[in-house]
Write a structure and sequence with these properties.
By secondary structure, the protein is mainly alpha-helical. It is about 60% helix and about 10% strand.
Length: about 150
Amino acid sequence: MRIGVYTRMPKIDTDIADCRACLCLASRRASRSITRAFDRRLRPHGIRGTQFSILVALIEGGPTTIGELAGFLGIERTTLTRNLDVVAAQGWVKIGVGSEDARSRIVAVSQDGRKAVAAALPAWREAQNAAVAALGPAGTNALRALAGMPIG
């Protein structure tokens, strides 16, 4: 038995040259780049961009279910649950049982979570301003429109 033997794939007859400009790939690469830029600025405050976004959503929207929060953030519930475990361990959120359905979980930002956002807000603003400058007004508005967010 031979392990690690690779065969050469046959040449594809289909012209895939236009795939080099794939918007799916471009958007994923841009997303990771933007996230890294926010994370770099927020790192000294001990918070990541994803965690900051969760806390801000809870500050603005108030206590909510995990499902509603995941929908607002545009992420899968399982991804949000993993992220909530981290912010809960930091003491930045409280997760309780829903009043109408004991199976649902209600998430609320804690006072420590509010303090973490307040401390990191200047760094977030720096990252936001740098991203807006890099994208320009048209790019910023296009990104917000694609995300279903307010433009302006």
